[in-house]
């Protein structure tokens, strides 16, 4: 470790003031502390925001759901409204990490977590995300767990969050508070693809604070669920995953929201799959046909070519699971 200062923000106003001066926000600390131990991150000042009033789950006026940034993963997964309205969110949270980590980690911190790419966390390896311009060791190294979608010449690291995949599928919005006031950013625009600037991962302005994630209202009943495929049953990140939400009325699919994890540099919305489902009647043939486009645009590397077929099979299986629950 190395010297740093620590302050606890007694109010949102004081937290923002500290953030404007370059302080890094910390609540559960389940990711940032690890990165500090490994000297991947070296913030000069930590600002503890765990006491701020951002820890509630509320139903919005239009019938959506607003999850405060400081709600823990455990609290969100167990909340009656989350489980009833959006089981895909609860399932994604329960399939993440250990119970101990879920008790500490917050929703805001979860979507801010950084990649588990071994080259990113090895300070002796070339990594444009950690040190811009140094190169990407993963491209020519062992890249079995890396991304096949949304990659660039500068970065092929996957985004590790499970619940972010559910938020992407449901077209959630991230509420932010900063010096310019409040704003809401669509989840698809909040997490940034690497391009030529992989070190910039979120659409945050200097000192901005995440206050909540809001899921819009959908017609009822909305059937949803999350499937995670990994090397072992627990405490492991996804090789592929699929978040699916379907609204079926009159035997026809009226709404379809599908996103994938474990395969993209950000949670990957599968718009081609969604378009193949809308207006169709649920059937095994439909699930298989729609899933064929799940890996459109994939750019597999030497060791992760298997992810193309694995993604298609994962999406097909989860479409069948959710679609047959009607």
From TrEMBL:
<dbReference type="Pfam" id="PF03450">
    <property type="entry name" value="CO_deh_flav_C"/>
</dbReference>
<dbReference type="InterPro" id="IPR016169">
    <property type="entry name" value="FAD-bd_PCMH_sub2"/>
</dbReference>
<dbReference type="InterPro" id="IPR005107">
    <property type="entry name" value="CO_DH_flav_C"/>
</dbReference>
<dbReference type="GO" id="GO:0071949">
    <property type="term" value="F:FAD binding"/>
</dbReference>
<keyword id="KW-0560">Oxidoreductase</keyword>
<dbReference type="Pfam" id="PF00941">
    <property type="entry name" value="FAD_binding_5"/>
</dbReference>
<dbReference type="InterPro" id="IPR016166">
    <property type="entry name" value="FAD-bd_PCMH"/>
</dbReference>
<dbReference type="InterPro" id="IPR036318">
    <property type="entry name" value="FAD-bd_PCMH-like_sf"/>
</dbReference>
<dbReference type="InterPro" id="IPR016167">
    <property type="entry name" value="FAD-bd_PCMH_sub1"/>
</dbReference>
<dbReference type="GO" id="GO:0016491">
    <property type="term" value="F:oxidoreductase activity"/>
</dbReference>
<protein>
    <submittedName>
        <fullName>FAD-binding molybdopterin dehydrogenase</fullName>
    </submittedName>
</protein>
<dbReference type="InterPro" id="IPR051312">
    <property type="entry name" value="Diverse_Substr_Oxidored"/>
</dbReference>
<dbReference type="InterPro" id="IPR002346">
    <property type="entry name" value="Mopterin_DH_FAD-bd"/>
</dbReference>
<dbReference type="InterPro" id="IPR036683">
    <property type="entry name" value="CO_DH_flav_C_dom_sf"/>
</dbReference>
<feature type="domain" description="FAD-binding PCMH-type">
    <location>
        <begin position="1"/>
        <end position="220"/>
    </location>
</feature>
